[in-house]
Model the fold of this input.
Amino acid sequence: MIDRDSNKEKKSTHTKWELKVKANKEENMGNISELELQNLRHLIGGYDTSVAKMEEYANCATDPKIKQFFQKGAKTAQENKQTLMKFLQ
Done:
């Protein structure tokens, strides 16, 4: 049986945590931990790989819809990579 009151409390605590992170984000942007840096590098590398693969898939595709699908995916992955790169500046 699910205790709905405890779920509400957890959700509320999570929301408070998110607000605290958001409030402190600008203040502590330059102070990321080693683990956070490693995670950023890992994510950026993954997006970089995704861009390369999706561009190659788009180049190999003959169906216009498939080509467009992979081009859009490559563009989105590139945008996500750039967003993450901002945390390293």
In short: Helices lie at 4-25, 34-60, 64-85. The first helix runs from residue 4 to 25.
